[in-house]
Amino acid sequence: MLVRFRLLSIITFCGVLLSGCQSGSRQEASAPVPGEDAWTFVSIPDFLNVDTEYPQPGWEESLTVILDAVKNENPDFVLVPGDLVMGHWDAPSWNSEDSIVKYSAKYYSAWKARMQAHQLKFYAAIGDHEIGDNPWIDSAKVAMIPVYKQAFATHLQMPTNGPAHMQGTAFWWRHQNVLFVSVDVFEEGESDQGSIKPGVSGEQLAWLERVLLENKDATHKVIMGHTPVLGEVRRWSSSGLKIAEGRQSDFWSTMSRHGVDLYLCGEMHAMTCTSRDGVMQMVHGGLIGYNRRTSYLVVTVSGDRLYLSLKELEMYPSGDHLWQVGDNRPLKKLDVNPEGFEVVGRVVIDKSEGRSLLEPKGYFKRKYEESNEWAAAVFRQGVSTEMTKISLDD
After folding, report:
1. 3-state helix vs strand vs coil in the chain, percent to 5
2. Cα–Cα distance measured from residue 207 to residue 223, given in angstroms and rounded to the nearest whole number
3. What is the pLDDT of residues 112-129, one digit of tens each?
4. Are 139 and 89 in contact (CB under 8 A)?
5. N vs C: which end of the chain shows fewer Cβ within 10 Å?
6. Mean of pLDDT values over 258-265
7. Alpha-carbon distance 287 to 313, whole Å?
8. How far is CA 121 from each of CA 42, 76, 116, 348, 356, rounded to the nearest angstrom?
9. Helix H or strand E encompassing 149
10. Does residue 137 contact residue 144 with C-beta atoms inside 8 Å?
């Protein structure tokens, strides 16, 4: 069923592109399809945002549907912009350092085993749940942040070419004609979240600028970090962490000045696609076990063009709560739509003559670029638990 769905998606995508395209700045009678040089990567933030065994009873069949769909995209690799685990592994009543060491080994190992079982190479950014979840006000919890970050670096084994104080949590790599950078947006500083101020500044920003300058010959540039920069964005069962300075931040202006094409992020567990100053911010992904939909982004690279396709899956969490350390617990049983993922957004970023967005569909349409819509987890009482669904034809 998934293979048939994938073939239909490819045929539909090609049909849309061949039917003609239009953007605010340019029209073409016949938009190109990816060439023979094409290759693909997938972005799926907040996967899983839950502490699970591998295999996880009650969940694994549905998680297999998700990862089989990703595998069927034939990606060279998968990006996960933060929140792999639940991460509530510290408490004043425990020896917190020992607990973090214990649970990080248990749950990161299970997370990696699942990805490896599906033969998916991955690059992961650090999220707030990888450092205990926000806020960071209690002094004992703040003291554990370096322990959390070291656990992430130790178990995920990301490249160690970042700033000296962020080895394994901020890094970069090149693949064919694309530069990829993963930033650690959880910097020391004072904010309404306590002793963490989300952003990219100081030494990390200087490092990022050096990487962008040294790789200015890359045809495309992609950055992933956990929290959005721009707002307003849709938010589903999320605390809504973002970079407070937004479009005025030095981080955003640095991405714009150096021709970054995509900023991939999660945190909000819903989709909002916003293009400003030559950069497309992609908020996507979904909270599994809490919400009724999850999503991933497929990016096909071909010459001067990036072909973007957002895919969404209906989920049906049910039952009692799955045990987690702490009390933020998803539902114990997870079922998904057997028909698989539905395409809910498409656009082509064309850089052959300047920069154009060709034939935006669904979530990529300008009218959906901003939203303050909010919903809670399916088991919350007295509040909205549903998010407006957007299709390609909306």
Report:
1. 25, 30, 45
2. 13
3. 999 999 999 999 999 999
4. no
5. N
6. 98
7. 12
8. 11, 7, 7, 25, 31
9. helix 145-156
10. no
Measured distance CA(283)–CA(224) in Å, rounded: 10
Question: What is the Cα–Cα distance from 205 to 197, expressed in whole angstroms?
Answer: 14
Closest Cα to residue 269, out of 286, 289, 282? 286
Task: Name the one residue in this structure whose structure tokens are 């039952």.
Answer: 319
Cα Rg of the chain, angstroms = 20
Indicate if the alpha-carbon torsion angle 146, 251, 174, 9 is positive or negative: positive
Q: Give residue-wise pLDDT tens across range 167-184.
A: 999 999 999 999 999 999
User: CB-hemisphere CA count at 13 Å for 106?
Assistant: 16
Do residues 315 and 293 make contact, with C-beta atoms less than 8 angstroms apart? yes
> Is the bond preceding residue 92 a cis peptide, omega within 30 degrees?
no
DSSP strand E in the chain: where?
Answer: 21-22, 27-28, 39-43, 78-81, 122-125, 171-175, 178-182, 186-191, 194-198, 220-224, 235-236, 262-265, 272-276, 279-283, 293-302, 305-321, 331-336, 342-350, 356-362, 374-375
Contact 270, 283 (CB under 8 A): yes
Q: Round to whole Å and give the CA distance between 357 and 307.
A: 10
Kindly give, in sequence order, each residue whose CB lies less than 8 Å from that of residue 19, ignoring residues fewer than 6 positions away: none
With contact defined as beta carbons under 8 Å apart, do 231 and 267 qualify? no
> With the C-alpha atoms ordered 161, 163, 169, 170, is the resulting torsion angle positive or negative?
negative
* CA distance to 49, 177, 179, 209, per residue, from 214 (Å): 34, 14, 10, 9
Residue 297 and residue 44: Cα distance in Å, rounded?
A: 7
Place of tokens 């953007």: 23
